[in-house]
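seq:
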Amino acid sequence: MELPDTYLSVIVPAYNEAERIGKTLKRIDQFLRGQGFSYEIFVVLDGPTDGTRGVLNNLSVKISNLRVIDRSVNRGKGYTVREGMLKASGTVRLFTDADNSTDIAHFDKMKSLFDGGYDVAIASRNRKDAAGARQVVPQPWYKRIVGQFGNAIVQLFAVRGIWDTQCGFKAFRAEAAERIFARATIDGWGFDIEVLALARALNYKTGIIPAHWINDPHSHVQPFDYVRVLGDTLRVWFNFLTRRYDL
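struct:
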């Protein structure tokens, strides 16, 4: 079956990623060049203050389908992913982290879901979501404990039945991406919860694949960010309660 252009857009949000993003983009391009569909790699800069721009300039002559949105103001990961999702052109739109903690090869399983009629596909590090999910190099113990507590709040107020809402590897059909992200409001780390809650409210069929996930010790997520995510969760609940989302 002939696939339309562009089939896949890979959105990579990037803050200060000079040390990691080069290797990640080369890996994404190397994997996708071996697939039978067209693609673009779409980096959205979230106001970096390091050498990320220089790395991308060097890569632009090596990766022909690399696109960059260069924003000088830092707005947060949620804003950055939303910007990429709404400006991408792919029939399927995937966002993934610049640290490559979830390798691009996971998309093979996601593509099978899309071929089978799913609208949204997410990766999970939790075996309760998908058999075989695992953290090869786990997060520090305190992050795991806070994460487990936070998920209980997420389950109660926003997204029942999904045990890992925060894995940074999620894909959407173009229509689903445009309808979901056009309604999204959260600019920070809690945006994953909002887009999953919106996908469910809009009746999009969502599938889950197991993640083979490797923690990067240089993650930008700080302990207090978990508190912000809980606040975002309550904000999503309040937005649904007050019918703020145009459904």
